[in-house]
Amino acid sequence: MSRPRADLATLEQLVRKRSPANHSVTPEWYSSVDNIRSGVDVSKPKVLFLCTGNTARSQMAEGFLRAMAPERFEAFSAGLEPKGVNPLAVQVMAERAVDISSQRSKPLTDYLGQVHFGYLVTVCDRAERECPIFPGMGQRLRWSFPDPAAAEGAEEERLEVFREVRDAIEARLRSWLAIDGRGPRAAAGREPLGEAPEGRE
Question: Which of 2, 37, 141, 169 is most buried as measured by Cβ atoms within 10 A of its Cβ?
Answer without folding.
Answer: 169
